[in-house]
């Protein structure tokens, strides 16, 4: 993330890092840059959680047959599980002031780190496109009815959407780029001041639904449409999908915790995630269910619902709320990681801003309007599918940091191309990590190919593995990496701690 300070990092004093491995965006954060308190970390998560995809995810579970309480329980359980890797992966960011691409060098190698960071960037670009499409829908809502009913609103088969909706998508695409230009401080301020506004707008929306529907009795009366066996066959892939929802940020959380004032701040700030997700899931389900009573049919999209409500004041507040929720989620979750990955790929060519622009361009190529066509394609193809890429990366990084290195890193070796460096391995690549990554992904591929329709059937075992892709790939890759590393003998640990940190970050 773009540095806003010019002071040098004490971690690198007296040492010249290799110029191909660093620039101002990749250096460890200094004491003066560590400005995130627990509230600002919590505000980051509020900004991330309050958004249309979170609302849509909650409705998708009920749409697939779950009872309202089963949907909320699934979301909360998934986020309690995810909180563990979030806090564990955030620890080195705060302790050493390093971003995710730099942390990945310790396990994958100085050059091998490009593999996990680019895979994370790939998923981030897809999410960027999805969030931008949602923001474009908010702009579409503002347009006069005469324009929305014109020939420009007719879908083109080759494009997969209408020219008018695509134009709104591109307009919102341009608008977001103005935010990333301010770097980390701009993002911090955006999240900090947006959080209370989003809470107020969400509460107002919930209150409207409660009053109009005469309470939440209809929602509370909705029972499961699934038998016991059908529920459990749906629960585990849904749990995986919900973990996958934030598995992206769980991987690159050091990009944010490197700015935390202390470990206490990063832990307390993240501890509210299951509460925030549970509360917003309730809001999404309550409002969605209330539409059955208010309008006579279920409206699962908040944007379509706001369009149905109508009124100038409602429309203006809707646009502000949806745009703010979309930008706060999109910038933090889907721009930072891809931009930092590109900076790590070529520090001399990429800055955070250039990386953000390329991320935005790739977001268009994902054609997000196709990913959001159905609940099944969103939950079981997109969310579960990419968890097979991110799960093994997280397992390998945590196994390396905690089991192999006992949370001790050599900062100087993370910025060195010396063949004698602790993270140079074989030509800059840790073959054990790459092998574990491949072995963690391979068993999931057949189930994915079946889900997208490229093959007709797979053995039941492979289908189960796919439905639990994050769990399987996370633990299997981490275990394989630990075994392969043990064969090589105990990894060298730094004999000195490089005198790295401000005392509060240790």
TrEMBL record:
Keyword Transmembrane: yes
Membrane topology classification: Multi-pass membrane protein
Pfam families to which the protein is assigned, alphabetical: Transp_cyt_pur (PF02133)
Alphabetical UniProt keywords: Membrane, Transmembrane, Transmembrane helix
Transmembrane annotation, as ranges: 36-56, 68-88, 121-143, 163-181, 193-211, 231-253, 273-295, 315-343, 355-372, 378-403, 423-445, 465-484
CDD domains to which the protein is assigned, alphabetical: SLC-NCS1sbd_YbbW-like
Positions of the UniProt region annotated as Disordered: 1-28
Principal subcellular localization: membrane
Gene Ontology MF term list: nucleobase transmembrane transporter activity
Bias (Polar residues) ranges: 1-11
UniProt similarity note: Belongs to the purine-cytosine permease (2.A.39) family.
Name of the protein described by the UniProt record: Uncharacterized protein
Species whose genome carries this gene: Acer saccharum
């Amino acid at each position: 993330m773009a540095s806003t300070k010019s002071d040098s990092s004490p971690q690198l004093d007296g040492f010249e890092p290799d110029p191909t491995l660093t620039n101002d965006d990749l250096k460890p954060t200094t004491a003066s840059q560590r400005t995130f308190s627990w509230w600002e970390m919590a505000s980051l998560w509020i900004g991330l959680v309050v958004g249309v995809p979170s609302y849509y995810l909650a409705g998708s579970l009920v749409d697939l047959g779950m009872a309202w309480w089963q949907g909320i329980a699934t979301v909360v359980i998934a986020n309690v599980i995810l909180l563990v890797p979030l806090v564990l992966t955030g620890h080195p960011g705060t302790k050493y002031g390093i971003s995710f691409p730099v942390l990945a060098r310790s396990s994958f190698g100085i050059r091998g780190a490009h593999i996990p960071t680019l895979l994370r960037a790939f998923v981030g670009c897809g999410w960027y496109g999805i969030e931008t499409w949602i923001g474009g829908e908010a702009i579409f809502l503002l347009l006069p009815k005469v324009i929305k009913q014109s020939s420009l609103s007719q879908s083109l088969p080759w494009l997969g959407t209408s020219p008018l909706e695509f134009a709104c998508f591109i307009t919102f695409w341009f608008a977001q780029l103005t935010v990333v230009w301010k770097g980390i401080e701009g993002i911090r301020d955006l999240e900090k001041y947006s959080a209370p506004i989003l809470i107020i707008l969400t509460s107002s929306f919930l209150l409207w639904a409660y009053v109009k529907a005469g309470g939440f009795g209809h929602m509370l009366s909705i029972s499961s449409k699934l038998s016991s066996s059908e529920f459990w066959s749906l629960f585990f892939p849904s749990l995986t999908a919900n973990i996958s929802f934030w598995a992206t940020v769980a991987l690159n959380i050091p990009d944010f915790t490197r700015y935390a004032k202390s470990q206490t701040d990063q832990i307390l700030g993240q501890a509210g995630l299951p509460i925030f997700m549970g509360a917003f899931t309730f809001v999404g389900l309550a409002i969605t269910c209330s539409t059955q009573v208010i309008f006579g049919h279920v409206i699962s999209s908040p944007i379509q619902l706001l369009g149905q409500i109508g009124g100038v004041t409602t429309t203006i507040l809707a646009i502000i709320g949806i745009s703010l929720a979309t930008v706060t989620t999109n910038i933090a979750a889907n721009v930072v990681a891809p931009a930092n990955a590109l900076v790590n790929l070529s520090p001399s060519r990429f800055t955070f801003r250039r990386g953000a622009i390329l991320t935005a361009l790739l977001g268009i190529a994902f054609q997000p309007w196709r990913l959001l066509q159905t609940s099944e394609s969103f939950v079981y193809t997109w969310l579960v599918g990419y968890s097979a890429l991110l799960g093994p990366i997280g397992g390998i990084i945590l196994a390396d940091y905690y089991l192999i290195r006992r949370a001790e890193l050599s900062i100087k070796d993370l910025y060195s191309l010396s063949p004698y460096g602790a993270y140079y391995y074989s030509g800059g690549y840790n073959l054990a990590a790459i092998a574990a990554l491949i072995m963690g992904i391979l068993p999931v591929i057949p189930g994915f190919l079946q889900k997208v329709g490229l093959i007709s059937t797979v053995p039941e075992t492979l289908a189960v593995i796919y439905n639990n892709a994050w769990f399987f790939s996370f633990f299997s890759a981490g275990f394989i990496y630990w075994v392969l590393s043990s064969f090589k003998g105990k990894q060298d640990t730094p004999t000195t701690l490089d005198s790295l940190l401000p005392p509060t970050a240790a």
